[in-house]
Amino acid sequence: MLYVGGSTAAAAPASTGGGSKGAYSGTTAYVTNDLVTYNGSAYIALGSTTGNLPTNTTYWAPFGGSTVAAWSFTADQKMGTD
User: Fold this and answer.
1) Which residues on neighbouring strands pair with residue 9, listed in sequence order?
2) How confident is the model at residue 4 (pLDDT cuts 50, 70, 90)?
3) Residue 28 main-chain phi, psi, to 5 deg
4) Residues 49, 38: Cα–Cα separation, whole Å
5) What is the pLDDT of residue 21?
6) Distance from C-alpha of 19 to C-alpha of 55, rounded to nearest angstrom
7) pLDDT score of 3
8) Rounded to 5 degrees, what angle do the CA atoms 62, 53, 55 make?
9) What is the mean predicted confidence (pLDDT) over 60-72?
10) What would the pLDDT profile of 5-55 be if each residue is shown by its tens digit?
């Protein structure tokens, strides 16, 4: 919590991604909830990571099924909504 002028205000949330980043690149900086494809599978970032392969379960978790054809999100699309 942040204390501002004697009152309590919520701290800003940590930066989270959540967007489709396409094919994994070892030079891209990823943040929590970024989605990538790697060797035909999809992975979601568990936190900030750069240069750690999606198969490294310290930084990534499998996302969805075992194979992914192609997917992308637009600004108007949100998971769990129409």
Assistant:
1) 2
2) very low
3) -90, 140
4) 15
5) 93
6) 19
7) 37
8) 35
9) 68
10) 554 444 444 556 778 999 999 999 999 999 999 999 999 999 999 999 999
Mean pLDDT of all residues in 45-66: 93
Q: Which amino acid is at 64?
A: G
Query: Which is it for the CA torsion 62, 63, 64, 69, positive or negative?
Result: negative
Contact 48, 41 (CB under 8 A): no
3-state SS of 8-58 is EECCCCCCCCCCEEEECCCCCCECCCCEEEECCEEEEECCCECCCCCCCCC
CATH number for the 14-72 domain, one of 2.10.10.20, 3.30.70.20, 1.10.275.10, 3.40.47.10? 2.10.10.20
One-letter amino acid of 51:
G
**For residue 29, what are the contacts with CB-CB under 8 A and spacing of at least 6?**
48, 49, 50
